[in-house]
Amino acid sequence: MSDAPLRIIQVGAGSMGRTWLHTIANSPDTDLVGLVDLDLGLAQRISEDELAALVPVARSLTELKELTGADAVVNVTVPGAHNVVNEEALRAGLPVLCEKPIAPTVADAQYIAGVAEETGQLLMISQSRRYLNQFTALRQATAELGRIASVSCEFAKAPHFGGFREEMPHPLLVDMAIHQFDSTRALLGADPVSVYCESYNPGWSWFAGDAAATAIFEFPGGARFVFRGSWVAPGQETSWNSHWRVSGERGTALWDGDNTPSTGDPLQPVAVGQEPEQTAGSLAEFVACVRTGTPSQSDARGNVASLAMVEAAVRSATERRRVELGEVVGG
Ligand SMILES: NC(=O)c1ccc[n+]([C@@H]2O[C@H](COP(=O)([O-])OP(=O)(O)OC[C@H]3O[C@@H](n4cnc5c(N)ncnc54)[C@H](O)[C@@H]3O)[C@@H](O)[C@H]2O)c1
Fold it and tell me: pLDDT per residue over 59-71, tens digit each?
C-alpha cells in the first residue's frame, strides 16, 4: 500500500464520534471521506459543525463505500452495534478500527474475531489508554523489574454522568474497569487465569448498579493484579488513569496516572516519550498496521481477553466464587 493518506469512513456520530472526527482530521495519515449514523440529521449537523470541509453522510456503510472509495472504517457506534458494523466492513474488504468494548459479550467478541480471521482483514480495538506516553514508560519500567509479584491499581472518582451508566447493573466493572484490565494485560504481556471479585454499592451511591468493586486476578506464574475501584468516592480522587504500583523481584514502579512514573530506590523518574496519545496513538498504530501488515498490539482476538476479564469479574461477583477465565472464554 502507498503512503497516501488512508481514506476513512467513520461510523457513529455521537459524543465519542466527535473526538474521533477531530483525531482523523488532525492526522496527516488519514482523510475522512464519509460519515455514517442511523441518525442522518445528527451526522449532517456534526459534519457541518465540526469539520472544515463537508463529507458525504449516509445511514449505512454500504451506501458510502463505493461512492467514496474508502480504504478503512473507524467504528464509534454503541457497543450493541459494533458487531453489525464490523462485519459489514470486514466482509466488504475493509479493515476496521473499533472503539472498545469489542462487543457486548465474550461470545459476540469471539464471533467477530473469527470473521476478521476468515476475511483476512485487520479488526483492531481502540483501547486508548494504552497510548499514553506515561503508561508506555510504566510498561518499560515494569519490563526491568524481572518477575512480577503484584500489580495494584486504585481508581476513585465521583462523577455524576446521568444516563445509561446510572441505570446499568455493573457500571464500574463494565464501563470503566475494562480500561484498567486491558492496561494490566499490556503491562504483564499475559492474560489472567482466574479472578475473585466482590462488587457492591455504597449506601450513598447515585448509581442503580454496583458502583464499587475489588477484584483479584491471578496471572500465569502467580502474579496477582488487585483492582480497587469506586465511582462514588468523593474526596482525594485518583487520576482517571488510576494509581498504579508494580512490584517485582528487582524493585517497584509507581505511577499516579497523571505524572511521570518513577522507579528505583531512591525513586527516579522514568524517561517518557513523545508519541501521539490516546485516540491519535491508536489511529497511528492502525494506519501503520494496515500499511505494513504488521500485527496490532490490540487486535480483536487478543482483545477478547480484556472483555473476558470483565465478564469473569461480573460472574465472580454475582456467584460469590473464584472464576477461571477458561469458563468464560470456553478454553
Ligand atoms: N475510549 C474511551 O475513553 C471512550 C469514551 C467514551 C465512549 N467510548 C466508546 O465509544 C463508543 C461510542 O460511545 P458514545 O458515547 O459516542 O455513544 P453515543 O450514543 O453518543 O453515540 C453512538 C452513535 O452511534 C450511532 N449508531 C448506533 N447504531 C448504529 C448503526 N448500526 N449504524 C450507524 N450508527 C449507529 C447512534 O445513532 C449514535 O449517534 C462506545 O463503544 C463507547 O464505549 C470510549
Answer: 999 989 888 999 9
Q: How far apart are CA 288 and CA 171, in angstroms?
A: 34
Q: Tell whether ligand 1 has an atom less than 6 A from the beta carbon of residue 38.
A: yes
Whether the predicted pLDDT of 274 surpasses 70: yes
> How many whole angstroms separate alpha carbon 180 and alpha carbon 202?
21
77 lines ligand 1 (CB under 6 A): yes
The class level of CATH for 6-126 reads: alpha beta
Cα of 16 vs its chain's centroid, Å: 13
The three grid cell numbers given for residue 252, joined into one nine-digit string: 517497584
Nearest-atom number in ligand 1 for the CA of 18 is 16
Annotation: CATH topology of 130-275+308-329: Dihydrodipicolinate Reductase; domain 2 (3.30.360)
**Å from CA of 108 to ligand 1 middle:** 17
How many A from CA of 146 to the centre of ligand 1?
Answer: 40
Ligand 1: which of 44, 62, 78 to mutate, judged by most atoms within 8 Å of the beta carbon?
78
Residue at 79: amino acid letter? P
- Ranges for all domains in the chain classified under CATH 3.40.50.720: 6-126
Give the whole-angstrom CA distance, residue 72 versus residue 253: 38
How far separated are the first and last CA of the chain, in Å rounded? 37
Mean pLDDT of the chain: 96
Nine-digit cell at 163? 444516563
* Residue tagged 469458563 (cell numbers): 327
Cα 241 to Cα 278: distance, rounded to the nearest angstrom? 12
Over residues 137-192, the pLDDT tens digits come to 999 999 999 999 999 999 999 999 988 889 999 999 999 999 999 999 999 999 99
For 70, what's the count of Cα atoms within 13 Å in the CB-facing half-sphere? 28
Residue 1's pLDDT is what?
63
At residue 178, the 3 state secondary structure works out as: helix
